[in-house]
Write a structure and sequence with these properties.
It is a single chain. By secondary structure, this protein is an all-alpha fold. It has one domain. Helices cover 63% and strands 0% of the residues. The longest helix has 24 residues. It starts with a helix and ends with a helix. The structure holds zinc ion (ZN). The site of zinc ion has 6 residues, from helix 5.
Length: 130
């Protein structure tokens, strides 16, 4: 890594974040959308980058893949209802599922995945109160 790489990376990141803010604000004008997708995409990036510096790409990928739990929405009718709280409505968002994710924290192999899933649940939970 040359010395120029790191600052340039930060500059690129800042531009990316600014673009994200602007797009969210002007296209969607929706605070809830902004918070929700920020927590789904932007915050995991920082968690991965700050706490798992060496394998941040893998960790970020696990966070993104953890969003597959939203496939359980396909079982619901309607599939998407913005006024519905996902928590304890969909099978993979049930209290039982959350308990299983919590137990998974105690095992090294499932820890990051379960942490990502719990973070997903937290995001969806916050959403219920916005
Ligand atoms: Zn969800």
């Amino acid at each position: 890594m040359n010395s120029y790489y790191f600052p340039q990376f930060i500059v690129n990141l800042t531009i990316l974040i600014k673009a994200y803010f602007l797009i969210s604000l002007f296209y969607f004008m929706n605070f809830k959308f902004f918070i929700h997708y920020g927590l789904h995409f932007v915050v995991p990036f920082f968690i991965a980058f700050l706490f798992f510096r060496k394998q941040w790409k893998t960790v970020y990928l696990i966070f993104l893949l953890s969003m597959l739990v939203d496939l359980d929405h396909l079982l619901a009718n309607p599939i998407f209802d913005k006024n519905r709280c996902s928590i304890n409505f969909h099978p993979l968002h049930s209290y039982i599922a959350i308990a299983i994710y919590f137990i998974g924290l105690f095992f090294k192999k499932t820890r990051i995945l379960c942490f990502a899933l719990l973070f997903h649940m937290l995001t969806d939970f916050i959403d219920c109160y916005l």
